[in-house]
Design goal:
The protein is of the alpha+beta class. The chain is about 20% helix and about 25% strand.
Amino acid sequence: MATALDKELKRIVTVDGESYTVAIDPEGLRLTGKGRRKPEVELRWRDLLSGEAAMAVALNASLSKASAPTTRTKTASEPPPDRTRQQKAPRKRTA
């Protein structure tokens, strides 16, 4: 007999020498790099059952095949560029 999943369950898994935390809860699962706070992969049970998750994987795969090897395309998992560290031009002093 299976036990109902009514609270979060966390486990550590190692993939290609990298450690990840897998969190499974009633809404879905999250895969987070060890020591990080933001999940790298987040999958909801509803998306998995409806086929939306498989469709997203297929779309990402087709987009990566269609792009030329010399051009770099932004994937959905890439974070936006950090604009807080842009340097400003020095101000001119007035006498």
